[in-house]
Write a structure and sequence with these properties.
The complex is a heterodimer of chains A (206) and B (541). In chain A, 49% of the residues lie in helices and 1% in strands. With 206 residues, chain A is an all-alpha fold. The longest helix of chain A has 20 residues. Classes of the chains: A mainly alpha (206), B alpha+beta (541).
């Protein structure tokens, strides 16, 4: 594996320069400065608590004092009824699918561990999520929604929100947004000055 | 006849101007709704735009109706995947079958320029045998036209689009002209594929891309700058270097007198007692008010989902029962790996290198073949594929994504046969406009499974030899094809070889829906060639 660690602050510094086009800067700063969702617009409080707990396991961010708000992004998208062009025919409409899936998840959490999903410890949460991903849950609300497809949709949504965020892009050393003057050095191992190098000591560590 | 309203919003948008690349207003002719125009064109992508330019240049009165907006890319496009979601056809489609297809960013575009706004600008020509699949293999369909019918249009298109490519090109019939521009530079993924294929005696070549490798003069808009290698083709080109329709044929058409009405969604085709279309009804913006444009001829160029959807909604052109049938989607397996080298997969044209040595593999146990290409990728697209395809989540996903800069892929684009079980239909569920959502049934057949297995073995070999670690494959199908196919027999086809509907004398269809077979290469250039040919056949008759 080529897992690397990159310096922090790279994308934020580039956003201050003319290497990023104005419309790109607007899009990324809006995302960077977005406040964590205080009150959900689409979900009720119980479902939202479950969603927040699920997102924290799908993309754990233990190192961040203010984690990127993935549950809020999903809630906002559903509240706006933003479609992405398709859905699995066997699934209900996106909003309904999320509501049912989160409800079913809490039912399974109660059944297996005697508490709602957000009350479980991390190991229990991961154990349950794996069952959902493998479609190894049944009964109750799961009879109305396919668990593995629900998991896939939720994971894809959380993942896309996460890697759209400038801080996550810093994490993986992505600076493709800084294209205003284009790229001249594009071959293997060729880097331009604005492209961050992976941290050497971290490389040793990994 | 019902009186149609006009709204202030409609008049406000129809200012008689269109934006250029930078958002500067360009004068545009305006036709009145009650004026009988020679042609209404529905859709402004690879099927609609070239013929719009041809018809307008011939002096015809032309109105194009486009569901999406008319963007000014240099002003409006952000270099950010999430911010560019507006380029995709985001109205919901229901994906059914054993291999349900992803739409949105994977397949259809919206906006003046259609899917060319987000295509990778990969523009190989077909080879002779692509058009004779049934003759060659006894499966699928032959085309009712031959390579020689398309060749003059390929020649013309490569020149007018400013295609960058190698001369000579190693595969296919000899060419009469060199590509007008040198190939784009190879990026890291292309280098990796090139060196491994050399060891395996697989010929490779810099690919053929409709993005200009040097500044290029474009009729109707002036100089387009050279591609700056930003790798962002699939989410919109902000410089005008990529030859999407909005910076090539659309400006030519507007200069020649065509009117392009954006944000205009067609709902009905009105016919007279003799079965001829008399007018096209559409909504404009989101207020639901309907407008009618009277016309002599309609060119339906809305793509292989929306074209059959509109025909089925209007119960038109379907005496054969073939509208919506024969739906195909190219086999598009991707193989990914991570390399010791710094790849930085966001730089350079994503599809930099090609091989067509697998066009008709000698050891094939399937009909048709495929091409191989190297691929770069943007992080959100890649991460979503890792999540869906490998099921990674938690720290494992973040760990994998920290290797993003060392990631490179190869991709195939291969034949797909038409099957009874793959089709588009209208569902019972309605969209925000009150129209039935399309349901798309798709399951790969035995031929696609064999072709994909053949390709995967080879691709893994190439990638392992190139030094990839953690090699993984991502099954997918791309491009939507074949729901209103052309042919010689009105019993089994929807349109004839000129693109004219057998049932409706003044309806032409021109987009990927008329392909009788999927082809072992990317469809865009061939759609454009059919578009110019359809216009010429129409003008001649």
């Amino acid at each position: 594996m080529q897992s690397k660690h990159y310096p922090t602050g790279t994308v934020r510094a580039l956003l201050e320069t003319d290497m990023v086009t104005p419309q790109t800067r607007i899009a990324l700063l809006e995302r960077l400065n977005r406040e964590t969702t205080a009150a959900p617009r689409f979900f009720d409080a119980a479902a939202y608590a479950t969603l927040c707990a699920v997102c924290a396991r799908l993309i754990p961010q233990p190192e961040r004092p203010h984690p990127i708000d993935l549950a809020g992004a999903i809630d906002g998208r559903l509240a706006q009824k933003e479609g992405d062009g398709w859905r699995y025919d066997q699934m209900p409409p996106d909003g309904e699918a999320h509501r049912r899936g989160l409800l079913a998840l809490d039912e399974s959490a109660q059944l297996l561990f005697g508490g709602n999903f957000h009350e479980l410890d991390e190991a229990q949460q991961d154990q349950l999520l794996l069952l959902v991903q493998r479609n190894e849950v049944s009964g109750g609300t799961w009879e109305t929604i396919q668990a593995s497809r629900f998991f896939e949709e939720l994971l894809a949504g959380a993942t896309e929100s996460y890697y759209s965020h400038p801080l996550a892009q810093e994490e993986i050393g992505f600076v493709g947004m800084a294209d205003a003057h284009g790229w001249q050095l594009i071959k293997l191992d060729e880097l331009e000055a604005r492209e961050p190098q992976a941290l050497e000591d971290e490389r040793e560590r990994v | 006849m019902k009186e149609f309203e006009t709204s202030p919003r409609h008049d406000e948008i129809r200012t008689g101007r269109a934006p250029d690349l930078y958002g500067r207003p360009v004068p545009m002719r305006q036709y009145a709704a009650h004026e009988m125009v020679d042609a209404v064109i529905i859709g402004t992508g690879a099927g609609g735009a070239p013929l719009m330019a041809r018809l307008a240049s011939a002096g015809l009165s032309v109105v194009a109706l486009e569901a999406g907006r008319h963007w000014a890319p240099a002003r409006d496009f952000a270099t950010d995947e999430a911010a560019q979601m507006h380029l995709f056809w985001n109205d919901e489609r229901l994906s059914a079958g054993g291999d349900p297809l992803w739409f949105g960013r994977n397949n259809s575009g919206t906006g003046v320029g259609g899917s060319t706004l987000h295509y990778t600008a990969y523009v190989p020509r077909v080879q002779h045998d692509d058009l004779r699949l049934h003759t060659e293999f006894g499966v699928g369909m032959d085309w009712p036209l031959a390579y020689d019918d398309l060749e003059p249009y390929y020649d013309e298109l490569e020149n007018s689009l400013g295609v960058s490519g190698p001369s000579p090109y190693p595969w296919g019939p000899p060419r009469r002209h060199a590509y007008p521009l040198a190939p784009l530079p190879l990026n890291g993924a292309a280098q990796l594929m090139e060196r491994a294929c050399a060891t395996l005696d697989i010929r490779t070549s810099p690919a053929v891309n409709a993005a200009v490798s040097g500044s290029y003069f474009q009729a109707g808009m002036g100089w387009r700058p050279a591609c700056k290698n930003c790798g962002f083709c699939q989410a919109g080109c902000n410089s005008g270097a990529k030859s999407s329709m909005d910076v090539t044929y659309v400006p030519v058409a507007i200069e020649a007198g065509a009117e392009v009405r954006s944000e205009s969604f067609v709902t009905r085709l009105e016919t007279d007692g003799a079965g001829r279309i008399t007018g096209v009804v559409y909504t404009h913006g989101g207020d639901g008010v309907e407008y009618r444009q009277l016309c002599r001829t309609v060119f339906l160029c809305a793509g292989a989902i929306e074209t059959p959807r509109l025909l089925l909604l209007n119960e038109l052109a379907n005496s054969s029962g073939q509208v919506g049938r024969n739906f195909m989607a190219h086999t598009g397996l991707q193989v990914w790996g991570q390399f010791e080298e710094d790849v930085r997969p966001y730089k350079g044209i994503p599809g930099g290198l090609i091989s067509e040595d697998t066009h008709r593999p000698g050891d094939a146990d399937f009909a048709g073949g495929y091409l191989l290409q190297s691929i770069g990728v943007m992080p959100v697209t890649y991460a979503a594929q890792v999540a869906r395809g490998r099921g990674f989540w938690g720290e494992r996903l973040r760990e994998h994504m920290r290797g993003y800069n060392h990631t490179a892929g190869i991709n195939i684009l291969g034949e797909c046969l038409p099957y009874e079980h793959n089709y588009v239909e209208l569902s019972d569920e309605t969209d925000a406009r009150g129209l039935p959502k399309p349901r798309v049934h798709f399951t790969n057949g035995e031929n696609e499974r064999r072709l994909t297995a053949h390709a995967e073995k080879l691709m893994r070999e190439i990638w392992t030899l190139a030094g990839a670690q953690d090699v993984w494959s991502f099954p997918r199908n791309a491009h939507i094809i074949g729901t209103a196919r052309m042919g010689v027999d009105p019993e089994t086809a929807v349109v004839n070889a000129d693109g004219r509907a057998f049932d409706v004398p003044n309806l032409y269809i021109c987009d990927n829906s008329i392909f009788p077979s999927a082809l072992s290469c990317n469809p865009a250039l061939t759609i454009m060639a059919l578009s110019l040919r359809t216009a010429d056949r129409f003008l001649k008759n």
